[in-house]
């Protein structure tokens, strides 16, 4: 509603269409300013649409721009409209409009971000660790990105299913159950509850590889599990429960919205696998390949041109990972009625997912408006630029990484603000440490790898969580120092000074960024926006005295302070990051 870019688009698009004789994109963007030093004011926004049209219309772009400006109704929004350079249209928003729009978003708890017009049912498939296996940094990214997606889409009013596609099924459970019986249920429960998952798994694996009798027992156990043998089921459930309990402690520490009700593991789809295969068969999509039943989705071939299969049923009769994913799609679209399926899974699984999506489309389980998107992400690298490993060479445990971040944050916070009392400090250290880890993840283009660098992520300068959290806390302290409540009667606002205008324009950009990120789930765009906002605020605060200003101006500037703090808090909140009032 207050998105200026969109408002300008609505005004300019018809004018462009008129001049071009067909639809033409005005391509509007914020102008790049070199500063407020005055002189070369290039407007707040810029439309470059005339340049793209020039060759198509065989006309001088400046003339096109001039005609567009003549056609468009802009004087109720803009103070000045100028054609410049080769044919840019420079638009300067009227101060009165800036004031009015900021007043509007200030009155709104949602800061002008309207809920979605057409709420959808969305499934976010994320986190998805594996039972009796340690959750490692690979799962961290999925959990952090997935959590941000959930928060954003829920805030926009979508019905979101959080699907924690736990790896809780498959042949390894035979050996794990046998191992559980060997060590005794109590001891096993203990090992699993302290998060010693890998040790448990490795011990079982070692026996399986070295002991034929144990291996045979394990194989029989798998059959018993699959046929629903009651006591086997109970032991399996115990393994799953213990792991889930442990994963919940990690989620709590990480401050994500996943609850124990969100575990919808692979085992959930057991009863649905047979019908999926039967339906694929009926549709003529199933083909035998060396004894396995496969689907060959359109458009996927090996390098030699041979079609590539996904194995739905293995030659031994077992169902695999792909069968489960097909059943999950069918369940999500047909039973849950979801139209948007998001898979927050690392890029190495891209091909698997794309093939499954294509097979589901061919089977008619993923037809518009329903669609699936792979929200892929790269790896976390250590300082040496290689995959993150601990000293022992094994993947770093997620909890160790979080502990380290919080411990370092505590030291940084203690140094910054020694006066903070003990309990507040602990709370702030947690918010800063966890926030830093999440922000480091969410502020880089997720498809790329990034370097885990504690010093950088915990720095109070730069594009980091502590920088943004500190900017927020500092604004809160302005109010504390002045002994005033944030003014919610925003009637008092007037935007005139260049630094006030710059801040107002920045604040008004929030809804546009949110809308864009809801589409792309590229959270680094929100991070970049928040960082830009905090920097713009800093300039404003340097140039425009707030508490020392005379009463009217002071009240107006306090409104801008409050709006900035609220935007930072909501924006960070969408990323799953807390914004403490003091640091
Ligand atoms: N459990 C898997 C892993 O750890 C991730 C599952 C991703 N989700 C899915 N629907 N396949 O790699």
**Number of continuous helical runs:** 21
The structure class reads alpha/beta
- So, CATH architecture of the largest domain? Orthogonal Bundle
Helical content band:
40-55%
Search tags:
binds arginine; 4-stranded parallel β-sheet; Rossmann fold; alpha/beta
How is the secondary structure organized here?
Elements: H1 4-20, E1 28-30, E2 45-47, H2 49-57, H3 61-71, E3 78-84, E4 88-93, H4 95-107, E5 121-125, H5 137-155, E6 159-163, H6 172-183, H7 185-193, H8 197-210, H9 212-226, H10 230-254, H11 270-282, E7 286-289, E8 292-295, E9 310-313, H12 321-335, E10 340-343, H13 350-363, E11 371-374, E12 380-381, H14 398-416, H15 422-442, E13 450-451, H16 454-457, H17 465-482, H18 498-508, H19 510-520, H20 523-543, H21 551-574
Parallel strand pairs: 5-6, 5-10, 10-11, 12-13
Antiparallel strand pairs: 1-2, 2-4, 3-4, 7-8, 8-9
Helix pairs in contact: 1-3, 2-3, 4-18, 6-7, 6-8, 6-9, 6-10, 7-10, 8-9, 11-12, 12-13, 14-15, 17-20, 17-21, 18-20, 18-21, 19-20, 20-21
The protein binds arginine.
